[in-house]
């Protein structure tokens, strides 16, 4: 019995000292992915020793118990990473005799010299609790402790031998069938993704006093135990990990690291895009000679500031003072409809001032109108109240400037176009609804 206690004492220490790198490549499975991502069924075989005593103590009807062989098999269904249902089957022999002298020279019985019980069969259903699956020290588990408890039925046939050497069957008419409660503990090692090594010890509490072939008066409850070494084989898709080895804290940590890295990549990409956009806007707004035409479109650089220029930045012919003043231009309803159409079709890239190509056609018609009638245009950019106030003000200004730059690139006179940004300060609808915010994100055109 001492070696059993030694095994149960040393093995937990060995489990804590295990190095996880040799047994599992990844923690496996998703944190909230469900059991379909794991293997949950397994079968096992084992062999060991049976003895008519248990570690928790209690007397039997013979003074000395003996070790004898036992064997078993099981089928297990892992419900959760820490809980499983296991059906156990076991057989073997249990022996004991009265060779050990007690202090007073007496024994529970002297009618028989020894007994031998053949455990023909036993079956039980057990709940198995993994008490060391969640490993806060290592990302991969190499060993786990477990406890089990359940209930079952055993069929056995005792034979007793008298001091004179006469052996008789305790129940000649057949086997004894009794209910029992198995309570066990053990340690399991993960040898591979398929095979686990199982070392266990189970105490069996019988609902009767017939196991050793002697019914003591007053009746007591016979007990026996089984210490075993076994192999467990996981069933199912080998690409899936075993649920019983699932380490939820490790999976949670890995998922958080992956999300953090992905967010960092996205943030770096956004910073790079913002830098490119700022450089483009700065290049677009550069006007070295101050004539109102960006250097990017100015075909006549270094024009004196006093000169009036056309959309290409080239000086306009000097006005003839002898000629009559300019003819008044009438803005028709068709002109206003053309501008309204341009407003309705104006679209920008999300969160940016880049004009989408689908808006070019209507803007081209506005540019042609401005050139044809020499009209002036005021552009007013607006946003909703989502985001930082300063960023919204800057975005509204950039979008108005982008429209101006495009119209100038189509030949419109930059000196007749004014671009202003108002940010979120002048809403035309409520910002509490998506539809209202959509209306507030706009660029207004005013021709005169």
TrEMBL record:
GO terms for biological process: monoatomic ion transport. It comes from the Bacteria. Residues 1-22 form the signal peptide. It holds the Pfam family OmpA. The keyword Coiled coil applies. It is found in: Cell outer membrane. Its main location: membrane. GO terms for molecular function: calcium ion binding; porin activity. CDD domains: OmpA_C-like (cd07185). Keywords: Cell outer membrane, Coiled coil, Ion transport, Membrane, Porin, Signal, Transmembrane, Transmembrane beta strand, Transport. Residues 335-448 form the OmpA-like domain. Residues 253-287 form a coiled coil. It is a multi-pass membrane protein. One of its GO terms (cellular component) is cell outer membrane. Gene3D superfamilies: 2.40.160.20, OmpA-like domain. PANTHER family: LIPOPROTEIN YIAD-RELATED, STATOR ELEMENT OF FLAGELLAR MOTOR COMPLEX. This is OmpA family protein.
């Amino acid at each position: 019995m001492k070696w059993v206690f030694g095994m149960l004492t040393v093995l937990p220490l060995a489990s804590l000292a295990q190095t996880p790198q040799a047994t599992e490549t990844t923690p496996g499975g998703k944190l909230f992915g469900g059991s379909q991502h794991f293997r949950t069924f397994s079968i096992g075989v084992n062999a060991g020793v049976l003895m008519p005593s248990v570690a928790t103590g209690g007397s039997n009807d013979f003074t000395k118990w003996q070790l004898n062989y036992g064997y078993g098999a099981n089928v297990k269904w892992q419900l959760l990473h820490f809980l499983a249902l296991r059906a156990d089957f076991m057989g073997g022999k249990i022996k004991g005799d009265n060779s050990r002298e007690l202090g007073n020279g007496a024994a529970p019985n002297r009618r028989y010299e020894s007994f031998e019980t053949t455990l023909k069969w036993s079956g039980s259903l057990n709940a198995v609790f993994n008490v060391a699956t969640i490993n806060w020290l290592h990302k991969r588990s190499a060993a786990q402790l477990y406890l089990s408890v359940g209930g079952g039925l055993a069929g056995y046939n005792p034979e007793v031998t008298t001091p004179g050497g006469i052996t008789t069957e305790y129940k000649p008419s057949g086997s004894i069938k009794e209910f029992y409660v198995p309570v066990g503990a053990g340690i399991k090692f993960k040898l591979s993704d398929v095979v686990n090594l199982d070392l266990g010890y189970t105490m069996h509490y019988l609902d009767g006093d017939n196991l050793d072939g002697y019914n003591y008066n007053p009746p007591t409850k016979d007990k026996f135990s089984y210490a075993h070494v076994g192999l467990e084989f996981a069933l199912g898709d080998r690409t899936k990990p075993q649920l019983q080895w699932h380490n939820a804290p490790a999976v949670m940590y890995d998922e958080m690291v992956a999300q953090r890295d992905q967010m960092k990549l996205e943030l770096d990409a956004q910073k790079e895009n913002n830098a490119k956009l700022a450089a483009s806007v700065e290049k677009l707004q550069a006007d070295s000679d101050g004539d109102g035409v960006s250097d990017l479109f100015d075909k006549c650089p270094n024009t004196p500031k006093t000169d009036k220029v056309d959309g290409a930045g080239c000086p306009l012919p000097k006005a003839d003072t002898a000629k009559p003043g300019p003819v008044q231009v009438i803005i028709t309803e068709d002109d206003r409809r053309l501008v309204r159409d341009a407003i309705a079709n104006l679209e920008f890239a999300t969160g940016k001032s880049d004009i989408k190509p689908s808006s070019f056609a209507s803007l081209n018609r506005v540019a042609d109108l401005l050139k044809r009638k020499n009209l002036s245009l005021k552009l007013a950019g607006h946003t909703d109240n989502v985001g930082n106030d300063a960023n919204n003000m800057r975005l509204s200004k950039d979008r108005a400037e982008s429209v101006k730059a495009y119209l100038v690139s189509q030949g419109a006179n930059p000196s007749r176009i004014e671009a202003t940004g108002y940010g979120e300060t002048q809403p035309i609808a409520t910002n509490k609804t998506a539809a209202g915010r959509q209306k507030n994100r706009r660029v207004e055109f005013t021709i005169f």
